[in-house]
Structure formats: structure tokens, C-alpha cells
Design a protein that fits this description.
- The protein folds into two domains: 8-69, no CATH class; 70-205, Hypothetical Protein Tm841, Chain: A,domain 3.
- The protein is 46% helix and 17% strand.
- The chain has helices at 8-22, 38-52, 57-67, 81-85, 91-100, 123-137, 154-165, 182-188, 208-217; strands at 71-76, 102-108, 114-121, 146-150, 175-179, 193-198.
- Helix 2 packs antiparallel against helix 3 and helix 6 (123-137) runs parallel beside helix 7 (154-165).
- The two termini are 20 Å apart.
Amino acid sequence: FTSALSSSYNSACRAAEQVRAEHPDFELYVVDNALPCSCGELLAMEAVRQRAAGLNARQLADWADEAKTYVHGYFTLDGLDALAAGGRIPPAAASLSSKLDIKPELSFDLAGSLSLIGVNRGRKKALKSLVKSFRENYELDPTLPLTIVSSDAEKDADWLEAAVRKEPGCEDLTILRGSVGPTIGAHVGPGMVALVFWGKNRAEKISLTDRIANRVRGE
């Protein structure tokens, strides 16, 4: 799980250090995928294919570090009550959004932190906003699947799949369907719908000053 949302990456790094200390010749790499939930699943699935195509362990770790910025994920929530219950937003904000029928569209940044990219009045507009994000960022490659994930929102997931297939060249794309698990479900609540796909390099969309900062950090 992305280091921006969980300590699991740091725990994996510590475990790897212990393994290397006891077995100096053991080849082991830990990659921070910076991709929440099903976004990381898409990266892992393609990593398996790349391994079968001949990449060795070092090459595969380098591949994953670069490939992760080409994975996009956009999702909307039916309400903000679950986020408020988990202490992630103030209860007053959740109450106000409910009264105004505000549906957020969220994604994640290059570090894997969740980010708000837009708000919509009403569910249908929120779902259409997901399709718009797909249209703006997808690069057609019929060999790569995309994923639609939901939490107790199968009808909306069906609508989203049908809308994606109406996009030029997307009629026969492999679309995987899934449901969130209890951990993520506890945070997003019922009614979450997400669209995950391979697309344009997200690293190229950051600002000039952020690019300079990344070079200073050696990234």
C-alpha cells in the first residue's frame, strides 16, 4: 500500500533490511507503488506479465518505479458521512455537502496521497465527471485492461462501464469489475464508484517548480 496512506511500505523496508543482513547475497527490492487500492492491482498485474516477458528482478523494480505514474484512478462518493466518521473531514462539512447534494471527485497525487480534483451537484454529474477524466487522460491500448470498482453501487458501475464503451475505440476493451474490501469500504462508505486505467504520464502534468523540487531530491 502506498507509503502516503499506510506504514506498510516502511515495514516492508525494515523487513527487507533484516533479510539482507542475514542473507547478504539475497536479491530483494521494495517498491513504493504510490497507488491506492485497485490502482496498485493494475500495476501488479502488468508487472507479472513483464516478468514473464523476461525482465529480471532489478529491471522489474525499475520498471514499476517508472510505470506507476502512468496509472490513473478517479472515484466519487455518494456522501461524505463515512469520511467524517473516520475523522478525515469535519462532520459539519459532511452535513453541508449532503444538504447541497455535493458529490466529490477524488484522485491521488504522485506520492499516493488522496486529492480532491472537483465537486459536482448530483450523482449523475459526478459519474459523467469520471468519464470526462477518462477521456482526457486515457491513451488507447487495447492490450491493457481497465478496472471499475464500487461499494454497493452496481447500477452506477454498470452505467460507467457502458459510458466508457461508448468512447471511440473502447467498445471491446477488457474491463475488470470489483468491489472494495471492508478496510477501504469503512472509509468511503456505500456508493463509491472508481475508474482505474493506464493513461498519460501523470509526472508530466506537475508544475515547473515541482519538477525542480523533484530534481533536487534526485527523483
